[in-house]
Amino acid sequence: MTFAVYTLGCKVNAYESEFITHLFNSRGYKKVDYNDNADIYIINTCTVTNTSDNKSKKIINHTRRNNPNAIIIVCGCFTQYKKGDISNKSSVDIILGNKDKSKIVNILEEYLKQRKFISKIYDLKNQEFEDMEIEKFETHTRAFVKIQDGCNNFCSYCIIPYVRGNVRSKKIEKVIDEVKKLVKNGHKEIVLTGIHTGNYGKDLGYNLTTLLKELRKINGLKRIRISSIEITELTDEFLGELENNSLIVDHMHIPLQSGNDKILKLMNRKYNTEYFYNKIEQIRKIRPNISITTDVIVGFPNETLEDFNNTLEFIKKINFSKIHVFPYSKREGTKAASMENQVDDKEKKYRVKELINLSNFLEEKYYNKFLNKEVEVLVERKIDNMYVGHTSNYLEVMIESDEDLINKLIKVKIDEIKGNKCFVKNISLKV
Q1: Has residue 197 been placed in a domain?
Q2: Is 429 inside a domain boundary?
Q3: Strands 251-253 and 143-146, bridge-based pairing
Q4: One domain, residues 165 and 219
Q5: Per-10-residue mean pLDDT for the chain, 431 residues long?
Q6: Tell me, what CATH number does 394's domain have?
Q7: What is the DSSP code string of 312-354?
Q8: In terms of DSSP bridges, do strands 291-298 and 251-253 run parallel, antiparallel, or are they unpaired?
Q9: CATH number assigned to the domain comprising residue 266
Q10: Rounded to two decimals, what is the model's pTM?
Q11: Most buried of 9, 157, 336, 356, CB within 10 angstroms?
């Protein structure tokens, strides 16, 4: 039988979908492209915003409409949020939440025996980490490693702790073993990912820095990237490792969410702007050219135009290299959903546009610092006649070459910058 996988949402979902793909392949199923005709479709959903919900519903309905006789399995955050009660169950044969993805083939084969609708949604409080392992990513040069699941922060706007459950971590020896296998199979860069990655190990008696110290001992590993980390998790111990561990890349994604203390408190964030600024200053003393990107929510309940302008000024002060901008999305079941003074959609759109314009300016400014500079690029893919890769600080670099450069680390000089892309015409500098 053939199968296809469609993934919405975050890097954790991407990892889990890759694992599901390997699981099906190992059991004799054949993967096809989602746009081809498949016997089985697996849709791994997202629910972080209303837009995510709508995308999830749209792809479910679209898949059934175009494939009336296929088996459709829907899993992930959207189904967990809806507790399996999705609007059109006739579109779906199997519903899973955020547990038992590692058993998905067994569940499918249970369905094939009786052809009866299956729904498995669990309470995710006090669950253990669901182990998954990937030895090689077929379509990516960099490899993701899911080290952690769940979140205990309960920010007032966020549904994720309710759909991902408590913080739980993969045992350190299993992470190290997985990374060793990935490196042995040719991966030079790994991305540590989780729902709350910086909280790794707290349920097991150690922390993320403990893991980083062990990973730097692995022969052949060239880069360690952390998908996202909270400012409050940048402890003195972590910053010491950042200084001493050359494998940690020159890029950190640190969510800000707001540059206004009143709004941060309403969001139930665990810091204020002064704390955030001082930590960024500490990082830049260690890594002066580091790229620091962030997430910001605009139009949060009670955010006035003055509050928003405070955020703009604070972002300029921090000098981020890129901002991921999100209009506040009301999620039923969170504290923010019942707050007064909700901001209207028109005002949100205005603020989103303003912040995106600022992000574009800051990104271009950061990129231009590296014009005519030597950088090291991990080449990931080829598009037409250009090789594409990323530097340690996540500059996207386009390289002209007649040689096969895929999965090679090369040193090059950036000849030209257009928007958020760097171009290289001479690759005489090599590693």
Answers
A1: yes
A2: no
A3: unpaired
A4: yes
A5: 96 96 97 95 95 93 94 96 72 94 97 93 92 90 96 96 96 98 97 96 96 97 97 97 97 98 98 98 97 98 98 98 96 94 96 98 96 95 92 96 91 92 78 52
A6: 2.40.50
A7: HHHHHHHT-SEEEEEE----TTSGGGG-SSPPPHHHHHHHHHH
A8: parallel
A9: 3.30.750.200
A10: 0.94
A11: 157
